[in-house]
Every structure is written in structure tokens, then in C-alpha cells.
Amino acid sequence: MTSERDALWDNERNRIPASERGGIPASERGGLRDGKRDQPGAGPDDHTDPASRDHIESAARERIKLAANAWAALLQVHAALVPKLDRLLNQTTGLPLSWYDVLLELAAAPGRRLLMGELAERVVLSRTRVSRIVDELVAAGLVSREGNPDDGRSAFAVLTADGLARYRTAAPVYLAGIEREFAAGLTDAELAAVASALRKVITWPITPRPTG
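The chain above was modelled as a monomer; its predicted structure follows.
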């Protein structure tokens, strides 16, 4: 399985311009662009020997494999644990995980209220999906909708007293589930490293690709 995956990565890698393969500083790329050498006179790296070029290309391949492995691991953890946490909350507290996420964000917000658009951004769901969940929470008496006096086209989702009580009951169950299903096999240092690395992905500046 590993060899098949490596072959796929190598094939995909060959389609990526050398200057965009990541992890290799420009000063180490030895003038390689799109897998080809620059023309003579292009710069001081023009005389990079074949052994150095092979080393650079090997490092680029390993970088791509590391990135793909990390991404695959993240997706596998998400796919494996989210259903478990959803079942745990449902069975223990009667709250689906999607409801809990909304209650959590409202409980943490100033005045325990958020505009629907803000709520959608915080729970990383589409506005349509969030609107449907809020409708369900309103029907259950855990959230109310209030008009926005500054903009009649928008509305606030507001946590009710019952919603806050249900959230506070569910939170310890959820946190215990995270500890058991996700964190138990990791040291404090590993947990800190995972959190730091993932936050860096979110905040890392992305330079738009040139057009034209």
C-alpha cells in the first residue's frame, strides 16, 4: 500500500512546478524551474552539480510525502472521532454534536448572542445548515431568534436559559470524550505541538499566485 501511495505521490509531484514544491528555499533550488535548469548566465547557481540537484529533488519528494501523510492523518482522525463524540453526546445528553457546537459558540459570545452570519463562520458551516440547526434549537426551546435593529435583513441567535443549562450539562461529557478518544495517547507536549501546528496552518500567510 505504501509503495502504491508513493508512486501516486511521485506522479503528482512531477506535475508541480519545482519552484512550488515547498520546503526547499529558493537558494537551495539551484536555479531549477519546472524541473529544468535555467539558461547559462541566469545566476550564481547555474553550475549546481547533478548530485546537488538530485539531493534537492529528493528533499522535495520527501516534503510532499510528509505533507500528504500529515493531511491524511488529520482527515482520518476527524472521520474516526467526530462520529464517536456525536454518539457520546447524543446518548448521554440528548444533544447532537452539531447542536452542541452552536450552543458552545453562543455561550462564549458577548451577551450569549450572535448574528446568524457570525454563528455560521464560527461553527464552520454554511448559513443554510446553521439556519436549519437554529430552527431545531428554537423548537427545542434552547435558542431564540431576535431581529437585528440595525439591519432588518439579519437576525440574532440568542441562547436561552434552558440552552445554557443544557450546554453546561453537556460540556463535561464532551471534554471527557475528547480526553478519552483523542488526547489519552498523547503527552502534554504532543498536544501543544498539534495545537500549535494546526493554528499555524490557519494563520500562515498565503501569497496569491501571479496571474498573466
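The longest helix spans residues 50-93.
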